[in-house]
Amino acid sequence: MSTVDDRPGGATARTGGPTGRAGAGHGRRGVTADRWEVGSAFPLVVPAGGGWAGLAESVRLYGSGRQALVALLEYGRHEYGWSAVHLPEYYCPEVADDVAAVLPVHRYDAGPAGGGEPPRVGPGEALVLVSYFGTPPVRPPTPAPTGAAVIVDATHDPLAPWLSHLGADYVFASLRKTLPLPDGGALWSTVDRPLPPAPAPSDGQRLAAGTILAAMCLKTAYLGGAGLAKEPYLAGYVDGERRLRAAEVSAVSDFTATLLPALPVDELRVRRITNATVLADRLATLAGVTARAYPFGVVLECESHQRREELRRGLISRAVYPAVLWTLRPGEVGPRHLDYSERMLMLHTDARWTERDMTRVAALVRQVRQAAATTRAPAVPAGAPHRPRPISRRPRHQPSDDLPPKGAPC
User: Fold this and answer.
1) Rounded mean pLDDT of 331-353?
2) Are 249 and 183 in contact (CB under 8 A)?
3) Is 148:126 a contact under the CB 8 Å cutoff?
4) HEC states along the chain?
5) What is the rounded average pLDDT of the residues 381-405?
6) CA-CA-CA-CA torsion sign (53, 151, 177, 281)
7) Which of the four pLDDT bands, split at 50, 70 and 90, describes residue 57?
8) Domains and CATH numbers, the chain
9) Residue 378: which residues within 8 A CB-CB, separation 6 or more?
10) Where does this protein have compositionally biased stretches of type Low complexity (predicted)?
11) In this model, does residue 379 exceed pLDDT 80?
12) Contact 222, 233 (CB under 8 A)
């Protein structure tokens, strides 16, 4: 869902500045001028504020959003006899893989680019709706049959006000995609459905969270100007993500369980949405790119995959690290959703940065587009003789060797 930092030995590190009090000094405090960057995983930040007033005992916490969904599906299979789960075609592939290990999966035509026929959900089946970038999902026009359950993935905006009015049986979210936490997933019901028993903590979860937390600490030190190399914390994020992906269903780490109630989640959400509005406004007249503000950030839709990759590489070289949500697999999704996934980029707008940072990011996006336009080979007129380009003798590098990963396990 969100991206992690570069691999050790890769391009520039993906970092962002820690915050002070929500709404004041975001993106500047504690970050040296020569280490300004936008995007990617959180460093260790503990913003002060009002705390999470809505976090109640009815919310079940897990090690990740994936674990929350898996635990719910296992519970539904044993308690209610759920026999299958319907997932949208446009969805995180790694999560779909883990879901398929619990229940048979049926994919239906839905995604940010629109949908087709609504899924035919049978009795005793579960339907997962996804809030793409924080927008309300589209419910099927007919009510779910008896014994069926509707589940909403609200990872991109867990505090969305429309969630309580949607009437879904269950809601789950990965908390670390919008909050500065090393781990954490949440599961709750807006209609008071029973939840699975609270999970026990596991050593694998503790190790994964501890590894990521150590990377967050090192990243904070680096951003503040400490004489540290990037490689240690970059390797820590990669190792932590790997461990978290492999961890069994577990309780959340003690660190996250302790910090979560104190985070000013409402203020952080407002700042993220405000920044997204500013950034999208600054990009409103950019030719060839459609910029849309969402509660999760700004999504850029380019005219082609080639132009998207030009923009992505150009931004990375300028210390802006966009996310690809998600890199879908050909053959598993329809052509419309695959095309959209290959043309989109998500720009982070969370509370690590100020409106001034968003204006700077917009200027860099325009700079990359202009640079690409001036260096791009002119179109060959119809009927003109083809002249092959000279073969370069320079070593050829694959994108995976010199660019950060496009996405991380969800």
Assistant:
1) 96
2) no
3) yes
4) CCCCCCCCCCCCCCCCCCCCCCCCCCCCCCCCHHHCCECCCCCCCCCCCCCCCCCCCCCEEECCHHHHHHHHHHHHHHHCCCCEEEEECCCCHHHHHHHHCCCCEEEECCCCCCCCCCCCCCCCEEEEEECHHHCCCCCCCCCCCCCCEEEEECCCCCCCHHHHHCCCCEEEEEHHHCCCCCCCEEEECCCCCCCCCCCCCCHHHHHHHHHHHHHHHHHHHHHCCCCCCCHHHHHHHHHHHHHHHHCCCCCCCHHHHHHHHHCCHHHHHHHHHHHHHHHHHHCCCCCCEEEEEECCEEEEEECCHHHHHHHHHHHHHCCECCECCCCCCECCECHHHHHHHHHEEEECCCCCCCHHHHHHHHHHHHHHHHHHHHHCCCCCCCCCCCCCCCCCCCCCCCHHHHCCCCCCCC
5) 41
6) negative
7) confident
8) 1-48+264-375+405-410 (3.90.1150.10), 60-188 (3.40.640.10)
9) none
10) 372-385
11) no
12) yes
Give yes or no for residue 369 having a pLDDT over 70: yes
The amino acid at 215: A
The CB density around residue 34, as the number of other CB atoms within 10 Å, is 6
Handedness of CA 61, 64, 70, 73 (dihedral sign): positive
pLDDT digits (tens, 9 = 90+) for 104-113: 999 999 999 9
pTM: 0.87
pLDDT at 230: 87
pLDDT of the residue at 305: 97
pLDDT tens-digit profile of 230-254?
Answer: 899 999 999 999 999 999 999 999 9
Phi then psi for residue 339, to 5 deg, are -60, -45
Structure tokens belonging to residue 63? 């090690």
The pLDDT, as a whole number, for residue 26 is: 36
Would you say 265 and 154 are in contact if contact means Cβ atoms under 8 Å apart?
no
